[in-house]
Write a structure and sequence with these properties.
Elements lengths: L1 E6 L3 H12 L5 E4 L12 E2 L9 E2 H14 L3 E4 L2 E5 L5 E5 L4 E9 L3 E3 L15 E2 L2 H4 L7 E5 L3 H10 L5 E5 L9 H8 L4 E4 L2 E8 L5 E8 L5 E5 L2 E4 L3 E3 L30 E3 L11 H19 L6 H7 L1
Parallel strand pairs: 1-2, 1-8, 2-5, 8-19, 10-17, 11-12, 11-17, 12-13
Antiparallel strand pairs: 3-4, 6-7, 7-8, 9-18, 14-15, 15-16
Helix pairs in contact: 1-2, 1-6, 4-5
The protein binds NADP nicotinamide-adenine-dinucleotide phosphate.
Protein name: Thioredoxin reductase
Pfam family, one: Pyr_redox_2
Cofactor: FAD
């Protein structure tokens, strides 16, 4: 049985693991299908403090993992199917049948990319449709690309993809962009980026050979359908928190983000803590995730030494 099991290995989970391991709690860290989390699909990270010239996302995550290992954190890869929170110790059932037991659990499973849910999308994932510019941009050298979305992710992906593409058309369903001004300005200042605003995506279109040839959209001003020609469609419309495997036991909001006691990482179940994007609807930055990972580990330590008051869980469970 483990004193603490951390589920998820983004900046939140790995920071929690570093703190728990340094506190001699020998945590087990469960790595899912994308060890290192979202930053492993990023290139340059320029806003993580301490790296004057920036650092590559995968390098940053690899460093955090090694740092946790150095202090004795144990790693195990696999998929958590279900967690039984009804008795103590908590029981984590892994895909394949193994069950792990823990006195405390830190949930840091992050959030996954959202899809549009339109015809032609799912069947072409990995064959012209992608949610990860840094993973797949390389395959579209000299080709036309569409990026869907109006937030910071879409601006970032559009700007990044101009390194490879002959042109990038940004398709957004409204006239106004949600993205921050600096990210908008960067994309707008890039002559390879074209704009198809006020367009709602309807379908990913392929030719007779099944090769993606563009995105069918509805022009919301004229109400006419149009084809935005492209060899690749990159969907950058936000993320969904990875909380389905938790069932109903852990309190979440209507979007599925875990609800924590404000200013802490306490969930509605004493001994279960949440950190990083899985509980963050506002900031969702690597540094805020890492900070909340530190908080989760410290909350966990406090709980294990018996000095935590559980008034929050009582309030929340009423
Ligand atoms: P977001 O801010 O939620 O933006 C999602 C965009 O996708 C919105 O423009 C939304 O349109 C559009 N959208 C959502 N569902 C759609 C659908 N079904 N069909 C068409 N369009 C759809 O998500 P994000 O851009 O991933 O950013 C998430 C957070 O991460 C933000 O806080 C952002 O600041 C941060 N972030 C920061 C950086 C950076 O600073 N380097 C980079 C990436 C992300 P509407 O606007 O019409 O709702």
């Amino acid at each position: 049985m483990y004193k603490s099991i951390v589920i998820g290995t983004g900046p939140a989970g790995l920071t929690a693991a570093i703190y728990l391991a340094r506190a001699n709690l020998k945590p087990l860290v469960i790595e899912g299908i994308q060890p290192g989390g979202q930053l492993t699909t990023t290139t340059e990270v320029e806003n993580f403090p301490g790296f004057t010239d920036g650092i590559q996302g995968p390098v940053l995550m690899d460093n955090m993992r090694k740092q946790a290992e150095r202090f004795g954190a144990e790693f195990r890869s696999g998929w958590v199917e279900q967690v039984d929170f009804s008795n103590r110790p908590f029981k984590i059932r892994m895909e394949g049948g193994d069950t792990l037991e823990a006195e405390t659990i830190i949930i840091s499973t992050g959030a996954s990319a959202k899809y549009l849910g339109i015809p032609g999308e799912q069947e072409n994932v990995g064959r012209g449709v992608s949610t990860c510019a840094t993973c797949d941009g390389f395959f579209f050298r000299g080709k036309k690309i569409v990026v869907v979305g109006g937030g910071d992710s879409a601006m970032e992906e559009a700007s990044f993809l101009t390194r490879f593409a002959s042109s990038v058309t940004l398709v957004h369903r409204r006239e106004e962009l949600r993205a921050s001004k600096i990210m908008q300005d960067r994309a707008r200042g890039n002559e390879k980026v074209q704009w198809a605003l006020n367009r709602t995506p309807i379908a990913v279109v392929t030719d007779e050979n099944g090769t993606v040839k563009g995105l069918q959209v509805r022009n919301n001003v004229t109400n006419q359908e149009e084809l935005v020609e492209a060899d690749g469609v990159f969907v950058a419309i936000g993320h969904t928190p990875n909380t389905k495997f938790l069932g109903d036991a852990i309190r979440t909001d209507e979007q599925g983000y875990i609800v924590v006691k404000p200013g802490t990482t306490e969930t509605n179940i004493p001994g279960v803590f949440a950190c990083g994007d899985v509980q963050d609807t506002r900031y969702r930055q690597a540094i805020t995730a890492a900070g909340s990972g530190c908080m989760a580990a410290m909350d966990c330590e406090k709980y294990l030494e018996g000095s935590m008051v559980h008034d929050w869980s009582e309030t929340l469970n009423k």
